[in-house]
Amino acid sequence: MEVKISADWKELLAPEFEEPYFAQLVDFVKKEYFTRTVYPKGRDIFRAFDKCGFDNLKVVIIGQDPYHGPGQANGLCFSVNDGVPFPPSLQNIFKEVQDDTGAPQPASGNLDRWAEQGVLLLNAVLTVRAHEAASHAGAGWERFTDAVVRTIAERKSHVVYMLWGSYAQRKGAIVDPTRNCILKSVHPSPLSVYRGFFGCRHFSQANEYLVRTGQEPIRW
After folding, report:
1. Cα 125 from Cα 64, distance rounded (Å)
2. Cα dihedral sign for 82, 59, 12, 168?
């Protein structure tokens, strides 16, 4: 299974790839792809790391696991491929972007355009069985993505972390708030969006922080 990952991430994460748990994870994932329908496509498992190299990284958004409907997951959290209807959480994200920054609703839910500007769209679990949410939770991905967050936290300052919901907030708890910008709210899902995601103004706050620290703002 060929996967794409940027050279800087590949080097930084090399020690993790050598860990025994990661070999077990790879065996599990390969077997799942061989025997089940699993998303995203194999080549897109590490796409978040390919589209947003470490050196370019300015913002981290943490999701939970990939969309489990046909054709939706593309390796970036909350993102869908061109032409795929926006899932509810993504609709709510775009509504908040528009209300916060004035940016128009986009034609596509593909968030490559964010990733290429330095937004790491990181799911905690990188694969999922079709129609079975969280079916690959506990297989080892969480340990790997904890290491990703730790690597960023240790090696970079002045990063914006958007932590939506308690799961993302727990995962980002190791980040030093004195050296970074940590933005917290409820999750943008329809179940919680009216309890504080709408009106959180995270997108404008992120850009204000980036400009203040001498970085280019994101075109949301």
Report:
1. 6
2. negative
DSSP string, 11-65: HHTHHHHTSHHHHHHHHHHHHHHHHS-EES-GGGTTHHHHHS-GGG--EEEEESS
pTM of the entire predicted model: 0.97
13 and 149 Cβ atoms separated by less than 8 Å: no
Summarize pLDDT for 76-93 with one digit per residue, the tens. 999 999 999 999 999 999
Q: Which residue has the tokens 């968030």?
A: 111
Please tell me which residue in 65, 99, 112, 176 is annotated as part of the active site: 65
Question: Given the structure tokens 């970074």, which residue do they identify?
Answer: 180
Taking only the tens place, the pLDDT of each residue in 193-220 is 999 999 999 999 999 999 999 999 999 9
Task: Decide: 119 and 51 in contact? Cβ < 8 Å.
Answer: no
Q: Is 65 a catalytic residue?
A: yes
The tokens of 64 are what? 């939970």
